[in-house]
Every structure is written in structure tokens, then in C-alpha cells.
Amino acid sequence: MSTLSSRPVLRTAALVIGLGLLVAWASLELRIHTRLDTIHNMSNILHGRPMEFGADTSTIHPFYNRVMFPSLLWTFTHGVGELKEGQWYILLRLASCIFGLGAFAFACDRVLRPTQARLQLAVALMALSIIGAFAFPWEDPTDVIDLGAQALAVVAALDGRLALCLLIAVVFAANRESAAYAGISWFVLAPPRPLLKRGTESFVICAASYAVAIALRLAISRTGASNWIALPHNIESLIQAVRTFAIVGWFGIEIGMVLFLSACVDLSTDRARRFVLLALLFAVPGLLFGWVEDVRVFLPCAVMMCFAVAAHKDA
Question: Which pTM does this prediction carry?
Fold first, then answer.
């Protein structure tokens, strides 16, 4: 009789579910003191109300396109019932963690065909990277869903399926604006085609995705429609972190993630080099528009580095 250990698909499923449980636990437990704010903000996003962060409120956060998780939470709470809103939030958070890791594992197996050990390493590193991004005090349930979106976009790009890549970018713009990165993935990973055509297709993907994000913001809250220009703040924060040797905290986490992911990458393969290039390209908008102290801004970079790990060719 076949055992679980002899079935790669079942072993991968067990790994994904197990790591999903651990990631969800870390996310929920580390930010339990701000969970009520997070749940309230789900409703605030849907209704265009000010975001709540402890005693502070804000109407200028460019988060009002992130309606996917809040809509699911509202649907299950008011449409299905049975459980309280907080309980549905926990279940949906767990489901999103399993979805994100599952999509990443599926993408690795689908387009890279790594060995079972290499796949397990890449998924485990992905889970570790996600937990590292939980240093920020407030939970954002868009993070692991976005991981799944980036992974699915990689599959579409490597398969040369333009319509699918565009669809993923547009649909997941309702989760997080970084879904537009799918256009960058297309430019770097899509099968050979003339440069002008490749560039045009990539621009269409990015523009369509970002247009959906802006349209959602404008429909819900005009004061939260514009992105921040965070580069001056980020430069100041990085200089301060270096001066004070703030190794315990967000700065240390980001250095640690770069080190342990880079150490596992084999740059001898073309695909690995392309994934590392994507990680570097994704870091640019993160530095321009995201707070450097919020490590989850760089999770798409970690996704590409973990793909680079999976792209290793074992002897």
C-alpha cells in the first residue's frame, strides 16, 4: 500500500497546509493586540471610512483598492453567518496563507520541475520570509494573497499565456496594487518575442492592473487614491538604522532575508538569474512607494528569490 511519503503531491500538500498553519499562527499571535483595529479596517476599507491605527485615524492611506479580503470577510460574516466576524477573520487568514503557499508550490512544480527536496526547501524559505514580514504591528491580510498572485503570474508568463497573465493582474489588483508587477514578470520571463512587442504587452498588463486599483480607490475614497512618495523617508530611515546599528528589528530582518535567500540561490541557471533580476526590479517600486520599515512591502522580492532557489538544478 502506498504511503504518504511515497506520494509527492500528498507530501507537498501536507507541507503547504502545515506551513500555512504555522504562518497563520505567527501572523495572528504576533499582532493579536491590534487585531480589532485590523478587523475594523476591513469594514472601513469597503465603506471609505478613515483607517484606524490605535488612537490615530487616517483617510490618506492608499489602501482602498484592497477590497478582496474585506469583501470575503463581509460575505462570510453576513451571508453565511454561523460564526462571529473575528472567527471568520481567523479562518480566512488561515485559508489565505494556505492559498499563497499552495500557489507558490504549484507554480514551482508546474514550470520549474524541481526535485522534491528542492521544492520543499523553496516553500519552507517562502514561509520563513512571510513570517519575517510580520514585524509591522498591524496585520495586512493582503500580503500572502499577493504572494499567490505573483506566483500565478510567473506560471502565466513562463507559459506565454498573455491573457491569463493580464487576468491575474487585473483580478488581484482588488487585493493589492503590487499585482501590477505581473507586467514586469511578463517582460522578464515570457517566451522569446520582439522587444517592442514584449514591452508593449508588459505595459498593457501593468497599466490595466494599476488602472483597476486606482478606479477602486476613487470609487471608495478619493482622499486615499494617490500613492505616497516614500523614497526620502526611506533614505532617512535606512541612514538612521545604519547609524544606530538597529540590527534587531525591521533592518535586521531585511538584511537576514537577503542573506539567507541569496545563500540558497544557484546563479548557474538562466532562470535563477532571471528571478533574481525580478527581485531587484520589484525592490524599486517598494523603495519608491512603500515604507522600508514595513518588510512585507518586499515580499514580492522574496517570492522571486524563492523561485530562484527552486530553479536550482541538482546534480
Answer: 0.92
